Amino acid sequence: DWTPDSFVETSIAALKEKLGDDKVVLGLSGGVDSSVAAVLLHHAIGKNLHCIFVDNGLLRKDEYQSVLDSYQHMGLNIKGVDAKQRFYDALAGLTDPEKKRKAIGRVFIEVFDDEAHRVEDVKWLGQGTIYPDVIESVSVKGPSATIKSHHNVGGLPDFMKLKVVEPLNTLFKDEVRRVGKALGIDPNILGRHPFPGPGLAIRILGEVTPQKVAILQEADAIYINNLRSAGVYDKVWQAGSIFLPVQSVGVMGDERTYENVICLRAVESLDGMTADWCHLPYDLLAKISNEIINNVKGINRVVYDISSKPPATIEWE
Ligand code: XMP
């Protein structure tokens, strides 16, 4: 019978056997899958697992530092790389969603490849691929599409020539969470909502600038913290805020304002393929809206997205 504990025991033994004294490099995203894969590999090979966590400047507020801290706390051999400016430079002037995704994918590959080269004599690339990623190549927006388009222009980066080890590729998402729990991973990491690889860049419609990222991070933190304190966060499949490229008139004291709009999104879903918008309580929405408008400079209006997928998508880009 499959149990998380038996899975952990047999995989650690199998990974030890397969990897011996080889070194493995693995990119952590802060998400559930890469975290569980890393901890499993860490149990099998310890310091020979070299984790890389890239700050692309597109994560949620304070997320880079808090995730890095909790990985270090778990004893992982991890290197944090501040690449914010490289991502912002690559995004400057881009407005097309697919061009933005490609730019982010390209810079990620460059940064990761540089870091992987620093790990002497590395033999393997560890990945948090899970079973649904294996059976269907997720979505055309996914990282594999980015890697293919990169491949067409410049050939494979060196880390992609490594042998691949994917300890979770037989598991479904709920099983990954159970394995993570059996491994003692921080419940805050295991219960985290899905978050897209291109991060806040696809929640800022149009051109991404560091200023817009900062505004969105503030608004989004107010939103997510309120979902948590209202006990709603764990009941929602995914929630996030979107920075709309629209200005509207408002009034603050005696002053007329002309500022941007934040849209709040929360959906229920089983797998992200279809989704219904969540009927969040009006008093909660009211509290969040007031807090955002009163505290986030540059925002004078908040709206709530009441579209389901299909025909809308979860993300706006
Ligand atoms: P959509 O917007 O297509 O999103 O309804 C479905 C799920 O996929 C996530 N998503 C992405 N994840 N890279 C990712 O890693 C992407 O480019 C990307 N686009 C969408 C989205 O957050 C949702 O969970």
UniProtKB/TrEMBL annotation:
Coiled-coil segments: none
Please verify whether the record's keywords include Iron. no
The protein's Enzyme Commission number: 6.3.5.2
Its domain of life reads Bacteria
GO terms (molecular function) for this protein are: ATP binding; GMP synthase activity
Q: Which UniProt keywords apply?
A: ATP-binding, Glutamine amidotransferase, GMP biosynthesis, Ligase, Nucleotide-binding, Purine biosynthesis
- Kindly state one GO CC term assigned in the UniProt record: cytosol
Q: What class of enzyme is it?
A: ligase
Q: In which pathway does it act?
A: Purine metabolism; GMP biosynthesis; GMP from XMP (L-Gln route): step 1/1
**Could you tell me what reaction this enzyme catalyses?**
XMP + L-glutamine + ATP + H2O = GMP + L-glutamate + AMP + diphosphate + 2 H(+)
Q: What does this protein do?
A: Catalyzes the synthesis of GMP from XMP.
UniProt subunit comment: Homodimer.
How is this protein named in the record? GMP synthase [glutamine-hydrolyzing]
Q: Which organism is it from?
A: Mucilaginibacter gotjawali
State the covered range within the intact protein. Answer: 193 to 509 of 509
